[in-house]
Design brief:
Layout (H helix, E strand, L loop, with lengths): L38 H6 L5 H16 L2
């Protein structure tokens, strides 16, 4: 049995990750102490579209401004 061809994914590299290499998630908190992204945003960053990344960065800014 042959596998179906893998769907080509258009990966966006135009927006840099906000990661500062301080990845700390406490069990009671779902946001990284270093970059203020949630676990899904960290995990999916490389496969997110430009629009999704911009939305995530807006959420990051809200989290920074309202701890």
């Amino acid at each position: 049995m042959r596998r179906r061809p893998r769907q080509s994914r258009n990966i966006d590299h135009s927006i840099a990750s906000p990661c500062i290499k301080v990845c700390q998630f406490k069990s009671d908190e779902l946001v990284c102490k270093g970059c203020y992204r949630n676990q899904n945003e960290v995990r999916n960053w490389m496969i997110m579209s430009k629009e999704e990344k911009l939305h995530a960065l807006a959420q990051v800014q809200l989290r920074k401004d309202n701890p």
